[in-house]
Amino acid sequence: MDWVERVTAVRRWTRGQERAPHKPLLLLYALGHFQRHGDAPIVFSAAEQHLAHLLREFGPPRPTSPGYPFHHLASDGLWEVRTADGGPSPGSGVGALRSTGASGHLTDDLVQALRRDPRLLPQLGRAILDANFEPSLHDDLCAEAGLDLEAAAGAAVRRRSREFRQRVMVAYEYRCAFCGYDGWLDGTAVGLDAAHVQWWAFDGPDDVGNGLCLCALHHKLFDKGVLGMTPGWEITVSVHYIGRGATSRGQVIDLAGRTASRPQSAFPSVDDQHIIWHAREVFRSPARAA
Q1: Which of 46, 201, 256, 290 gives 20 to 30 Å between its CA and that of 235?
Q2: What's residue 160's pLDDT?
Q3: Would the pLDDT of 151 be above 80?
Q4: Where in the numbering of this chain does the ScoMcrA-like DNA sulfur-binding domain appear (predicted)?
Q5: Does residue 91 register a pLDDT over 70?
Q6: Left if phi > 0, otherwise alpha if psi is -120 to 50, otherwise beta: which for 29?
């Protein structure tokens, strides 16, 4: 049985290219729980706030309920839910899950596979992350889910296409499109990333028309939805971002309304459809006034 294929093929609610990482987030949480507590069940009422936090931090900028993945993941054959008296899942309503003492756990066959092969857990974790989230978020996701992918040998590490990175860097002349940072050390650019605008996991192509050269700070904030941009290349800053110090204001808040730098004329600008996808699926609207 190919468990990697099964965890990356979980059925998700879909509409166009909208993100719905509810089940993958619960799977990451469940793997972290297994790593720490074995096959002890996850009681919904005890995990509800943590799951809601994961959905809020790493899901799309739309309200959602932790009851949705807790109930519906069972349809993929990886997860089981039982009430305190041994009955089936009462549904996805948080009230019913709480009142019935519902708990969930990974299926017995998956648990046995994880015990037989210590390398399987980090392989599954990496596969879920790669299929659903940008690499800049992986470390934070693992920390929030309590998942240590380095604890077992043989964990696969995903790496960006070197050609994509190189082409994006040249297109933007090794300068952050948002702030102009262009640091080098011994002939090598440092602190600069090639960022996908529309995430690779959601059909974002590996080409310059979907790439931005961003410094490490602004790349992280772009993938978290703090920063965004409009089809007119105006930088947007979420009203939900709070930065009281001079550094936060100068490096983040004051970007609102500025125009991002475009690539050299020999390279295509980011396609509007990718910018619109990011604004809808990642950016934490509304935007601050310039």
Answers
A1: 201
A2: 47
A3: no
A4: 3-148
A5: yes
A6: alpha
